[in-house]
């Protein structure tokens, strides 16, 4: 998460709450090519699909934290705008997921309305890969800062992918080439706000799900994010555990596309957002997510061949022959119709 200054502005995360033990991966060590850190990254990506990425202690990481703080300020400015004004920039699913999503527009597991707003800024828009769409003035004047943030975030994604390439014994640049910043995609910077919930009616704000894309870099300060323990049933409340935000770190998770490409070696784990614990539940929860999608024309079939760890399709198995654009539309249609029940996927055992 951003620096400690931001954490001092809100109540502390309760010390008596059980939290997930996410591996802490240090950006500086990945940049220097330390094998033990690369091994730890691969293990986290296979066993849980979630890890903390620590940016402190290296120039590149400290720079990214400062950019994240700028985006947090912009997030607050956007989501605190008058709703009627924001609705002029409303998103229009399934045709467009970019723009403003009002509270209650989505549903949680029991059919109740969600409890969050967000604003999606498309990477194609900011990078001029596609025709720019109109945004509120506070976004328009900060296009250079948003572009700088996306470029640095994408370079971090590419670094992670380079280590996963090596661990999976894929040719260099295999994974990064499937999600180039110059290729049209659904990649977005999402700025979210969860209002405080009444103590008499606290519940899930965003339903349990996996991310459809490749990788997500998430910054938040207050708690509320929960992950499903491996092997647990999503309908069992005891299977969900809070993730404690840590200063100087982002939460990184792998999405469904990585499961497809790795034939189940890498893991996409279910997660949800509920009310923040303790006194944190009394303040608004802001978060910042860089959600990376494959390039629209990228093939979704398993990677591999040669000396790769990724197994070939076995008898009775069929490779996914869709493009990323087709696959994402298929997944979205299944979710809307209730045919695609979210579940954790991947994490199969391999001989390393």
Concise description?
The protein has 352 residues and is α+β, with helices and mostly antiparallel strands. 30% of the residues lie in helices and 16% in strands. It has helices spanning 4-7, 27-31, 35-47, 59-79, 83-86, 123-126, 137-140, 143-168, 174-177, 256-261, 324-337, and strands at residues 24-26, 50-54, 99-101, 117-122, 188-194, 206-209, 215-220, 225-228, 240-242, 249-254, 271-273, 285-291.
How would you characterize this protein structure?
The structure is a single chain. This protein has a single domain (4-297), classed as Sandwich (Jelly Rolls). Helices cover 30% and strands 16% of the residues. It is built from eleven helices and twelve strands. The chain has helices spanning 4-7, 27-31, 35-47, 59-79, 83-86, 123-126, 137-140, 143-168, 174-177, 256-261, 324-337; strands at 24-26, 50-54, 99-101, 117-122, 188-194, 206-209, 215-220, 225-228, 240-242, 249-254, 271-273, 285-291. The strands form two sheets. It has an eight-stranded mixed sheet with strand order 1-2-10-7-12-5-4-3. A four-stranded antiparallel sheet has the order 6-11-8-9, with no helix packed on it. α3 packs across α8 (143-168) and α4 packs across α8. The longest helix has 26 residues, at 143-168.
